[in-house]
UniProtKB/TrEMBL annotation:
Family label: Belongs to the ERG4/ERG24 family.
EC number: 1.3.1.70
Compositional bias ranges of the Basic residues kind: 76-97
Span of domain Tudor: 4-62
Name this polypeptide is given: Delta(14)-sterol reductase LBR
Topology versus the membrane: Multi-pass membrane protein
Organism placement in taxonomy: Eukaryota, Metazoa, Chordata, Craniata, Vertebrata
UniProt source species: Oreocharis arfaki
Molecular function per GO: Delta14-sterol reductase activity; DNA binding
Positions of transmembrane segments: 212-231, 251-273, 294-313, 325-344, 455-475, 481-500, 521-542, 562-581
Catalytic activity: 5alpha-cholest-8,14-dien-3beta-ol + NADPH + H(+) = 5alpha-cholest-8-en-3beta-ol + NADP(+); 4,4-dimethyl-8,14-cholestadien-3beta-ol + NADPH + H(+) = 4,4-dimethyl-5alpha-cholest-8-en-3beta-ol + NADP(+); 4,4-dimethyl-5alpha-cholesta-8,24-dien-3beta-ol + NADP(+) = 4,4-dimethyl-5alpha-cholesta-8,14,24-trien-3beta-ol + NADPH + H(+)
Regions of compositional bias (Basic and acidic residues) in chain numbering: 101-111
Length: 614
């Protein structure tokens, strides 16, 4: 194993990824496995650099002094010759020989080339103050509404200035000018390259309570689902009325498990259909972009058609309600088996394909959070497929089954108004997610979290069986609401949906194309990573306006169930806790990623989710 060259705490010069600029950094740690140094820039940004991208300060200064000292002496000697006689005319009474003339021209050409080289070195190793601030997330003004093209033009301005000076005073031939243009074009290419994020190293800061916390969550999450479903089955679903535990044999039925497998693989077939556009995700740590097929809405239409055919042939969809507990257990067993498969296959995954937050080296923790970032079987992306398809579409099917079960059990010709509201609100939410499927590619689940038990259980069990809790509750505990109350709840849901959708649209459009003319009115704070932090629109109101809209909608989904029991409000209580915890994770990651720029953003937008409260 090669020994490290730089010690922790040592101040060195580190190259900014994707450019030729070196900045003063401090070594904070060293990864013996990946052979990468974690360094910290003055603005607080932390990156992982290879040893070849780091130089000691002494060698760096020595090289700079060499390049700057050689050039002026040659320029002085050239000027002294110019004052004595014309460069193109020999001295009186003496004719210059052909060899002397050639030597003089070669010397002159060399002098001009070294002069231009010195200017280039000055640009590379002594950038202007504004350039340095821009790379460190310290813009000339705190807020900008410039496009990324304008920022790039400002970065290239010193190069254009050097080129103009050289063309004005240079005596080179056109062939040499072409070579110079190639040099500058190559330099521009280096500057224009976007910084590549660091290759994932060992996870040092453990979330969710570390190894003990994740182990407890693996046990508590299935137990919570079982508890909630048993409570809904009781006549009195109060918290103090603990339900009796069912017999183990009543929780499992192979036929139910077979139906669940059929559902899962049917959605996989819909995912593989060559319909819908193919888009690229955000760059990975290696700079590569994965491709994703956007056809979730088409899968929803095909599923609706299949359900319609089953109802036409009088298939009893309320079978889902009668065996709801067994379906939940089947989904939990499948998600556990899937999680084991994901962890085993991740042990052979390359280092650059591991998740930033699930590479701790602890089995239980990595099993829970997900060891591999984007596990794929060929072009089939397992995490992306489970994120929206089986669970989210299954949620709508479960709600429909609950609606039909309510009509059958209570002998109703039409569903109750409360059941219609719950089904309508949640159907809108699912259709919106599938219609804007491409937006999920910028979320933390896809870009940061690995695919392990947390997401597998959440996508396949928690979403369809806990998010449908209101509809399941209304089947056994019907609630009557008036039309004015229904109208007020509908308005509340629409307000939450408008905030949620407009905020997400602003964020996703800006991330995809900051130079879009439609976004010219949006102001942002530039960062050292090349991305901008929005400080206008919804994102200038609170830091997570999409979370605010989500919570308002969650409340509207629970209100039709009345106020007799707190059980239907479990979803909104849980959702507030979930989003507050996720917001804290976002804050931690953004502070590490954006450094000083994030601190300025927090000063500009002080409220996190709830304006004037939190």
């Amino acid at each position: 194993m090669p020994s490290r060259k730089f010690a922790d705490g040592e101040v060195v010069m580190g190259r900014w990824p994707g450019s030729v600029l070196y900045y003063e950094v401090q070594v904070t740690s060293y990864d013996d496995v990946a052979h990468l140094y974690t360094v910290k820039y003055k603005d607080g940004t932390e990156l992982a650099l290879k040893e070849s991208d780091i130089r000691s300060q002494s060698s760096f200064k020595h090289r700079k002094s060499q390049s700057s000292s050689s050039s002026p002496s040659r320029r002085n000697s050239s000027r002294s010759r110019s004052r004595s006689r014309s460069p193109g005319r020999p001295a009186k009474g003496r004719r210059r020989s052909a060899s002397q003339s050639r030597e003089h021209k070669d010397d002159k050409k060399k002098t001009i080339q070294e002069t231009s080289l010195a200017l280039v070195v000055l640009v590379l190793f002594k950038p202007s103050e504004n350039n340095t601030k821009r790379y460190n997330g310290e813009p000339e003004s705190t807020e900008k509404n410039d496009t990324s093209c304008i920022i790039l033009e400002q970065k290239l301005k010193p190069d254009l200035e050097v080129k103009r000076v050289l063309e004005q005073y240079s005596l080179r031939s056109r062939k040499d000018d072409k070579k110079t243009e190639e040099i500058f074009s190559e330099k521009k290419t280096f500057v224009a390259v976007k910084p590549i994020e660091k290759v994932p190293s060992k996870t040092k800061e453990l979330e969710f309570g570390g190894r003990i916390g994740t182990f407890m969550l693996i046990l508590l999450l299935p137990a919570t689902v079982l508890y909630l479903l048993l409570m809904c089955k009781q006549d009195d679903p109060s918290l103090l009325n603990f339900p009796p535990l069912p017999a183990l044999e009543s929780l499992w039925e192979w036929r139910v498990f077979g139906i669940f497998l059929l559902w899962f693989f049917l959605q996989a077939v819909f995912y593989l259909l060559p319909i819908g556009k193919v888009v690229e995700g955000l760059p990975l740590s290696s700079g590569r972009k994965l491709q994703y097929r956007i056809n979730g809405f088409y899968a929803f239409i095909l599923t609706a058609a299949a359900i319609g055919v089953l109802l036409y042939f009088e298939f009893e969809l309320h079978y889902l309600y009668d065996h709801f507990m067994q379906f939940a257990v089947s989904a939990a067993a499948f998600s556990l088996a899937l999680s084991v498969y994901l962890y085993v296959r991740s042990l052979k995954a390359p280092e650059e394909e591991l998740a930033p937050g699930g590479n701790s080296g602890y089995l239980i923790y990595d099993f829970f959070t997900g060891h591999e970032l984007n596990p794929r079987i060929g072009s089939f992306d397992l995490k992306y497929f489970c994120e929206l398809r089986p669970g989210l579409i299954g949620w709508v099917v479960i709600n429909l089954a609950m609606l039909l079960a309510e009509m059958r059990i209570h002998n109703l010709s039409v569903p109750s108004l409360a059941m219609i509201l719950v089904n309508s609100f949640q159907l809108l939410y699912v259709v919106d997610a599938l219609w804007n499927e491409e937006a999920v590619l910028t979320t933390m689940d896809i870009t940061h979290d690995g695919f392990g038990f947390m997401l597998a259980f959440g996508d396949l069990v928690w979403v369809p069986f806990v998010y449908s809790l209101q509809a399941f509750y209304l089947v056994g505990h019907p609630t009557t609401i008036t039309w004015p109350v229904a109208a007020a709840i509908t308005v509340l849901n629409c307000v939450g949906y408008y905030i949620f959708r407009s905020a997400n649209s602003q964020k996703n459009n800006f991330r995809r194309n900051p130079a879009d003319p439609k976004l010219a009115n949006l102001k942002f704070i530039p960062t050292a990573t090349g991305k901008g932090l929005l400080v206008t629109g919804w994102w200038g109101f609170v830091r997570h306006p999409n979370y605010l809209g989500d919570i308002i909608m969650a409340l509207a989904w629970s209100l039709p169930c009345g106020f007799n029991h707190i059980l239907p409000y479990f979803y909104v209580i849980y959702f507030i806790c979930l989003l507050v915890h996720r917001e804290a994770r976002d804050e931690h990651h953004c502070k590490q990623k954006y450094g000083l720029a994030w601190e300025r953003y927090c000063q500009r937008v002080p409220y996190r989710i709830f304006p004037y409260i939190y």
